[in-house]
Amino acid sequence: MENYLANLGVLICVYSILAITLNFIMGYAGIFSLAHAVFFGFGAYTGGFIALNYTSSIFVTLPAAMIVAAVLSLLLAIPTLRVRGEYFVAASLGLQILAVTLFSEWKWFTGGIGGLVGIPPVSIFGTEIFRPTSFVIVTLVALVVTIAIFHLLVHSNFGRSLRAIRDSESAAAAFGKNVPVIKTVSLAISAALAGMVGALYASYLAFINVESFMLDTSVLIMAMVIIGGTGTQLGPIVGAIVLLSLPSAITYLNFLPQSEIGAIQQIIYGAGMALLMLFRPGGIVGSGGK
Amino acid sequence: MLALQLTLTGLQAGALYALTAVGFSLIFGSTRVFHFAHGATFALAAYLFYAVEAAGYGFVPGLLASFAGAIAFGLAIDWFIYRPIQRDEGSFFTVFVASFGIGIVVQNLIGMIFGRSFVTITSPLSRSREILDGVYVAPLAGIAFVVALICLVALGLFLRTTFTGKGLRALSDDPELVRVFGLNPRYLSAAAFAIGSALVVPAAVFTSMSSGLNPAIGHHVMLISLAATIVGGIGSIPGTMIAAFIFGLAENLSLLWFEPQWSEAVVFAILFAAIIARPSGLMGKSAAR
């Protein structure tokens, strides 16, 4: 029971961090990415690869994962964020579909379809942390740090520029803000932290394969942000908790076919997204009405 | 010989891509709605055809069911989702998320009803014949190519000669002016959705008879449609058509050098290169911003 709760706690922290990082670019920079699971995945594979082959020290795996994810996001952002928002949606969808092929084919780095097996647990100053009850503390710390980073960012000069861009890109540009650079930097920060949590996730599960980083995951993270409340600080966490408790809630409803839990869950949040946009675009936490 | 074979397959794939992409491009160009659920329209049309045909009712009832389903879905989503959102000056974001949500629902309903594995309709026409030494073509591929060309030419004529067609092109240029001119933008937007969704049907039917269907097929369709719209130039129907043919040919000709699982990577590479080299698209009217 204790382990079950700790495990749920780890998952909630991991997905909250993913949702917070995606919310930062969606809600503050106005970038709609369908590729968030790609940054998460590259972080996970980088962390897992280093832990398997070199060292499992958190002070190596996490920075490496962050750098790889950030560099990848720059490759995507530099050409596409200069132009219209729709272009980025298309490019990120393309990247997500391409990444699934890459993760399943690039055997020496990702282990192919079979994935990376036996990833050692994280080590902090030589202490290995693998029990869910202790790992949940690591992820909680990561969550608090993430919240703090984005709180500071949103309330800094940079955050004000971001909001100006979101509200009117041309007005912000007229005021001398370098819009593409600000957007690109936001995406890189967001991707880096998604990559970081990927490395934590890989070492916690000790096994990763492509199934954790497919389009479904990107969509799930996006649904967490939207249902919780885009552009709010609490929304992504609320969204992560709500959507992660859905599968167990469905299990309690005996009249639903249990083999279809995944599909039912997706139908619920798909319909939820559409209905919220009709009646409450701000999400659960966001200001009501329109 | 292999190159010729792949060129022929690529032309057929390109023709089917052109139909779906042009449908999306028409809707997006004239109504400015980022209709992400267009991929769901494709999946719905294809599975309706499959259901009716597999139940033994035959080809024509299947085709009719597919048309009826696609058009009804397009009109309903415009009427019940996009219009209420746009009435409250919904942003790109709200429309996109709602459309995306609907797409997820449709994909999973199809998965629950028909299962998640590949299904296909076999017909004597889909059996390949050797037309040249080592070059195989199914009669169906030729039929699909011709039907697609007829649809595209008919669409071009419709947009150039009829009153509604001209109105649709005007709507993409200046919706306010259309209103001042006394045309009803509501009616035009419904027309765009009906035509755009109907164009998907031949592509969906031919796909179900050749390469087969799975519930997630909408994503691939959407990627191609989006990519072709962007590479062709937003608002340009001919540009979208050309880009769709480029994608069909590139996907197939890439098999000369790469394994088939990389075909989507080829689409991505072309899209990426096009955004870098020519952000306004092949035949884009305005600059990219």
Keywords:
heterodimer, A: mainly alpha, two-stranded antiparallel ribbon, two-stranded antiparallel sheet, 12 helices, B: 289 residues, mainly alpha, ABC transporter involved in vitamin B12 uptake, BtuC
Quick summary:
The complex is a heterodimer of chains A (290) and B (289). Chain A is mainly α and 290 residues long.
Helices and strands, with pairings:
The complex is a heterodimer of chains A (290) and B (289).
Chain A: H1 2-28, H2 36-53, H3 58-80, H4 85-105, H5 107-110, E1 116-117, E2 122-124, E3 127-129, H6 132-154, H7 157-167, H8 169-174, H9 179-205, E4 207-208, H10 215-228, H11 235-252, H12 261-279
Helix pairs in contact in A: 1-6, 1-9, 1-10, 1-11, 2-3, 2-4, 2-9, 3-9, 6-9, 10-11, 10-12, 11-12
Chain B: H1 2-31, H2 38-54, H3 59-87, H4 92-114, E1 129-132, E2 135-137, H5 139-161, H6 163-173, H7 175-180, H8 185-209, H9 217-232, H10 237-253, H11 263-277
Antiparallel strand pairs in B: 1-2
Q: Any idea what the shape of chain A is? A: globular
**What is the succession of H and E elements of chain A?**
HHHHHEEEHHHHEHHH
**Main structural class of chain A:** mainly alpha
Task: Assign the CATH class of chain B.
Answer: Mainly Alpha
Distance between the termini of chain B: 44 Å
Distance between the termini of chain A: 42 Å
How does this structure look, described?
The complex is a heterodimer of chains A (290) and B (289). Chain A has 12 helices and 4 strands, in the order αααααβββααααβααα. Chain A is mainly alpha-helical. Chain A has one domain (2-213). In chain A, the strands form 2 sheets. Chain A has a two-stranded antiparallel ribbon. In chain A, strands 2-3 form a two-stranded antiparallel ribbon. Chain A starts with a helix and ends in an 11-residue tail after the last helix. The mean pLDDT of chain A is 86. Chain B has 289 residues and is an all-alpha fold. Chain B has a single domain, classed as ABC transporter involved in vitamin B12 uptake, BtuC, CATH 1.10.3470. In chain B, helix 1 (2-31) packs across helix 9 (217-232) and helix 2 (38-54) packs across helix 9. At the A-B interface, helix 4, helix 10 and helix 12 of A face helix 3, helix 4, helix 9 and helix 11 of B.
